[in-house]
Amino acid sequence: MLGGPTSLIPHDDINQHRHETWIGVDHGTVYLLDQDIIPVIAVGDYDSLVAAERQQIEKQIKDIRYAQAEKDFTDSQMAALTAFADLKATQVNIFGATGGRIDHELVNLFMMTDPRFQDWLQQVTIIDCFNQITFYPSGNYQLPYQAGYQYLAFANLTPVKNLTLRQVKYELTDFSADNPVSWSSNEFLKDQPARFNFTAGIVAVILSHD
Amino acid sequence: MLGGPTSLIPHDDINQHRHETWIGVDHGTVYLLDQDIIPVIAVGDYDSLVAAERQQIEKQIKDIRYAQAEKDFTDSQMAALTAFADLKATQVNIFGATGGRIDHELVNLFMMTDPRFQDWLQQVTIIDCFNQITFYPSGNYQLPYQAGYQYLAFANLTPVKNLTLRQVKYELTDFSADNPVSWSSNEFLKDQPARFNFTAGIVAVILSHD
């Protein structure tokens, strides 16, 4: 749980996940404690927290890792790294990653394009009230039909080669470019999986609803 | 004015700009009319609008351009193109571009990396309640100190070469990478301009506050 605006956190989802293993990042840790979820690890510099919030964290959480402002990894990268390397996570769902400050949001969106995170590229999902984002390296994919999401988008976050979209409302064939593009407002065909493939780059798949 | 969540639109700013030339895009057109601002042009497919809203637009706006769902340009790209090519704008401020659906937000953020928009790269600013985003091609820049923004970030939206940051809290020297990175949470030095330069790529500068 990162420290993004709480208005974008899907509270029902959090409740369903409450018995899983949580890592709190900065103000996200306070949010978790407020929901009676005690993260196994807290990460951050806690700069933006008031004294009472810091005390609450220090009292309730055993493993607190203090990040430094000038460092190789951002708080959210450090949290993801901790999840995979220390907790041996096979799937990491990231909440509180979107909205508010766009520099922070882009840190989280671009994180999975960092070569240091390539091993875990397909094990991360960013989730908020409107969006569910997953990441793919080059390859050939079939995405199961998801009834709850009206819109389906593909965004090459890096240069991409031969991006092809099939079994979707708007098909695309062999798109290559050096600049990122968000192919927005596409849609699943009813009850059919979407298919996509590309030969180089990293593509984010964004499922969303209004 | 694009159709993003109105909660992120800085209403005071809009009021200050009310006598400028406006283009409304989809639901952004309704927002403008609600503020008693009549855009000179409306662009969109108006799919998401109710009949009363469509009628209001048709009654009040002389130049209405109907975009098609399957097309070379998104609504927001078409609006920017219209501003530059038809209205000969020298500066375009984009509101309603952030929040809500991330596929839409990325369309707007990535738009200025499109080769077709390179001539106008430095004439666009994306503005919401928390952020002000501008775009730069390779070169050597000096950014005036801005007291109102606590945070200063640099994000290479494309591959970048030799990105160097000077006269900022956290300096960076000759960073090159093929993946995008959001260098977040940097800060101006008091009363000093920030300096940055790079030799290839497109960099977004994000000024933000909490």
TrEMBL record, chains A, B:
Source organism per UniProt: Lapidilactobacillus dextrinicus DSM 20335
The EC number(s) this enzyme carries: 2.7.6.2
Protein name: Thiamine diphosphokinase
GO BP terms in the entry: thiamine diphosphate biosynthetic process; thiamine metabolic process
Nucleotide-binding listed as a keyword: yes
GO molecular function: ATP binding; kinase activity; thiamine binding; thiamine diphosphokinase activity
Residue ranges of every copy of the Thiamin pyrophosphokinase thiamin-binding domain listed in the record: 139-204
Presence of keyword Thylakoid: no
One of the Pfam families matching this protein, by short name: TPK_catalytic
PANTHER family xref list: THIAMINE PYROPHOSPHOKINASE (PTHR41299)
Keywords assigned by UniProt, alphabetized: ATP-binding, Kinase, Nucleotide-binding, Transferase
Family annotation (SMART domains): TPK_B1_binding (SM00983)
